[in-house]
Amino acid sequence: MQEQSRYAVGIDVGTKNVRCVIGYIDADGDAPKIVGVGTAPNSGMRKGTVTNLAGPAEAIDTALGAAERMSGHQVKTAVLSVNGSHLTSIKADGMITVGTTDNEVTPEDIVRLEDMATTGKIAQNREILEIVAHSYRLDGQDNDVKTNTVLDMLRKVPMVTVDGQDNIKDPIGMTGTRLEIKANVVSGLLPHITNLQKLAEMAKVEVSSVVPAVLASAQAVLTENQRENGVAVLDIGAATTGVAVFEEGDLQYLSVIPLGGQNVTNDLAIGLRTDPEIAESVKLAHARFGGKKLGKVETKHEKKTYSFEQSEIDEIVGARYEEIFEAVAKELKKAGRAGKLPSGAVLTGGGANTKGLVDFTKEQLGVAARLGKPSEYGGASNEIKGPEFSAAAGLMLIDAASDVSYAKSPQNAKKAAEKAGGFLRGIFAKFK
What we know:
Layout: E1 6-13, E2 17-25, E3 33-41, E4 45-46, E5 49-50, H1 54-71, E6 77-82, E7 88-97, H2 107-118, E8 126-133, E9 137-138, E10 141-142, H3 150-155, E11 160-162, E12 178-189, H4 190-202, E13 206-212, H5 213-221, H6 224-229, E14 231-236, E15 241-247, E16 250-257, H7 261-271, H8 276-286, E17 296-301, E18 304-309, H9 310-334, E19 345-348, H10 357-365, E20 369-371, H11 390-401, H12 404-407, H13 410-420, H14 422-429
Parallel strand pairs: 1-6, 6-13, 14-19, 19-20
Antiparallel strand pairs: 1-2, 2-3, 4-5, 7-12, 8-12, 9-10, 11-12, 14-15, 15-16, 17-18
Helix pairs in contact: 1-4, 5-11, 7-8, 7-9, 13-14
């Protein structure tokens, strides 16, 4: 059957900016090519959550419109990001008896298993966003068993075991009486997620999925080896910093810290006794770590030139980032991975652009660090090379992977996986 070309769309709804990325997947099944990019300033949000509908809805409409004009494609559906400290992950496990008379595992059994694992553990005012493999045990022994089904991709089914059987690749169709699961469940407050969906509706876009921004960024910047070895993604946005820890290919921990680049701007405005708009210009032009040259530096804003002491800027920026990384270190400790990440930390998001931040991260966390940004997508990929576009690019990749008719082709799976990274690589592999 001839594959059809299609588009994939990601919209990253940040506190200060909305970014949209449109990818095109041709009939030959190549990895998505960037054909549309749009950015718009956002208002009406605070620390990742909606405070009024009008501002973010307008920003989505503006960013989407720019991407549509570039691509020549009118967007009808998209994957959206969600952010904020209301996002959490918890461990969950469960066990069911296989429901068929012949004891053959069905997709319905997987659904019941998920329900059993999460019932009573997720509050009614929270929405489950991801059910991700965390760890599991089979008859008291550790295993590396994973499901391998279409349902796994669509519903994010984690690892399961059947009756003590080992090395299960796909429980669907297998025979057994006891089906077990241990998972990591990511959830967010339902009102915040509902408000995001309303924003999209106001921009006449149907939301196909809502994904935590830090997980979307991970799709765009992590390699399969990093996910296997152990790595933390630090998505530093304007008002929040997302922390996601991966190990053995799976998400192990997720949290969002209510601190980000805007806090640095506010500190500079107070410390330099200047307007926030000027402080933002100072931050973008002169924020750094480890620079030796001191003295006065100049920043232009609205045709005027302002002069500040570099040493004062360094002191203010350093103090705030120390606070942010102290909070990050606490989250890594909660995850049990403090100083135990062979692949270190990958920095992304707009706040990761600060000069010298990679070396600063190494000193603060005691692990390797690198800058993560989307790349090698072809087309207009030059438009999204900065780390601030990681989440939008990752959302687009998730949207591309969600199309079963595209992904089920072995040729398409292989080609797309080459660009997709660890999580999506696993998704595409399911259709070989």
